[in-house]
Amino acid sequence: MGLVLLPGGFTNVRQPLSRRRFFGGVAATFGAVTLSNSELFAQAPGTQATATTQRFGGSDADYDRMIKLASNENNYGPPKAVMDAMNSAWKYANRYGYPDGNVVEAIAAHHGLKPENVLLTAGSGEVLQVVGTTYLQGGKKVVGADPSYGSVYSHATNIKAEAIKVPLRKDYTADIPGMIRAANDNKATVGFFYLCNPNNPTGVVVPKEEVDAAVKGIPAGMPILIDEAYHHFVDDPRYAESVNSVKEGRPVIVARTFSKIAALAAMRIGYALAPPELIRQMRPYSANSVNVLAKWGAVASLKDTAGQAEVRKKIIESRTHTQRELEAHGYSTIPSQTNFFMVSLGERTVQPVITEFRDKGILVGRPFPPMLNHLRVSIGTADDMDKFLKAFKEIFPKRSATTMARG
Q: What count of Cα atoms within 13 Å lies in the side-chain half-sphere of residue 179?
């Protein structure tokens, strides 16, 4: 059963929950655990996320014509050096024990760690699955923010586990003290603590001091999973990566992916960084299914610092420009530190708007309950964003200008 914090303590509820899934498993239903009070961003009843990322419903030619701003991909694509590395690896397509570019060693060296600190996975989605399978056994729960990236929670559903979900505050920041409190109040039944930083779908960061407070404030020995899929796009000085916590030997698992800045989303390669003991605990649940092309592409992408810096610069510039244009048109946005942002649609709900954009040749967002009046938009190329803004202004009339909150 799920748990809801009411005056006087927790009570059990049961609500269906499903979110985007990177992994299979037997579908089940379970209660999502929600904490709420007057200061928190409350979840509307009956609005658990149901949308999933699906294959495009149309021809290949139709897909190729679409401007893709729905799945937080890198629309600039892999650079030539990465493509060359992957193409050179085709000669190993018929082999099992092939050279893999020493990908694990390259990742470890990139972070100043050892190979025993690295678990290679099929995207960071597999990291989230593996952590759940490892640490939610025996009826354990996960503590996390809501809304956040839901694969952790949907995997918990699949293995008949539970979640203690702490709503975001009204300013869309994570309620770290509330999450720490939930972990400590339920320490006997909590398997791990989850942070998506920056958060998906809001794009908001958890500042370094709050991450440190979580790492030090939850029960001793409790693993904390920190999903840093979008860390490359952060320019907020309050933010810091969490690799140092791994170096210090704390029970921290950092999830990383090559799907975003490296533009290898379809290749499915990511990794976990953690102390060796945690890697040993997780390894039996990893599928070891990363393909040879992805491995060689990942090694090349780690060397492409100049190319990634240029892509980062372009995306941040486009993000800033697009949000300012929307604000000037009268539609508030949530300040983002990722390669996507959310814009308020006022009284309109997301699903019909998604259809209107698709009719104009643009794929955008998906519903993120309870934020059903907010549209998530990925940052594409400058030309992509110009076309998005043109379409937005055709769909939505100009309103009195708003002021974007800065933080």
A: 28
Q: Spell out the domains of the chain, with CATH numbers in brackets.
A: 2-46+82-303 (3.40.640.10), 60-78+306-395 (3.90.1150.10)
CA–CA separation, 182 and 167 (whole Å): 12
Per-residue pLDDT for the chain (407 aa), expressed as one digit of tens each? 344 333 333 333 233 333 333 333 323 333 344 443 323 333 333 333 333 456 677 888 999 999 999 999 999 999 999 999 999 999 999 999 999 999 999 999 999 999 999 999 999 999 999 999 999 999 999 999 999 999 999 999 899 999 999 999 999 999 999 999 999 999 999 999 999 999 999 999 999 999 999 999 999 999 999 999 999 999 999 999 999 999 999 999 999 999 999 999 999 999 999 999 999 999 999 999 999 999 999 999 999 999 999 999 999 999 999 999 999 999 999 999 999 999 999 999 999 999 999 999 999 999 999 999 999 999 999 999 999 999 999 999 999 865 444 33
- Distance set, CA 170 to CA 37, 40, 49, 112, 146 (Å): 11, 6, 19, 38, 12
Tell me phi and psi for residue 120, to 5 degrees: -80, 135
CB-count burial class (<10 Å; 0-12, 13-18, 19+) for 289: exposed
> Angle at the Cα of 374 (from 270 to 42), degrees rounded to 5?
90
* Closest residue by Cα to residue 19 from 51, 43, 67, 44: 51
Of 96, 61, 81, give the one whose Cα is nearest residue 262: 81
Residue 320 to residue 341: CA distance in whole angstroms: 10
CA terminus-to-terminus distance, the chain: 37
Q: Residue written as tokens 């509330």?
A: 178
CB 337 within 8 Å of CB 235: yes
Say how far apart CA 105 and CA 117 lie, in whole Å: 10
